[in-house]
Amino acid sequence: MTELEAILLLVVSVGAFIMPFVSNRLNLPSPVAEIIFGLIIGMFFSDIFHKTEVVRFLGELGFIILMYLAGLEINFENIKKLPSKNKFIYISVISLIIIFSIFTVYYLNLPNIYILVLLTTAIGLLFPVLKDLNITSTHFGQTLLIIGSIGEVVSLISITIFFVVYKYGFSKEAFIHLLEIYLFFSFAYILLRLFKLFIWWFPDKIPVFLKSEGVTETSVRANFVNMFIFVALAALLGLEPIIGAFFGGLLFSVIFKEKEQVIEKLSSFGYGFLIPIFFIDVGLRFNLMELLQLQVIYNAVLLSALMLIVRFLASSLLIFANFSFIEMLLTPFTLSIPLTLLVAIATIGYETQMINKLQASTIILTAILTALIYPWIFKNIIKRINFIQK
Question: Which secondary-structure segment (H or E) carries 131?
Answer without folding.
Answer: helix 126-132
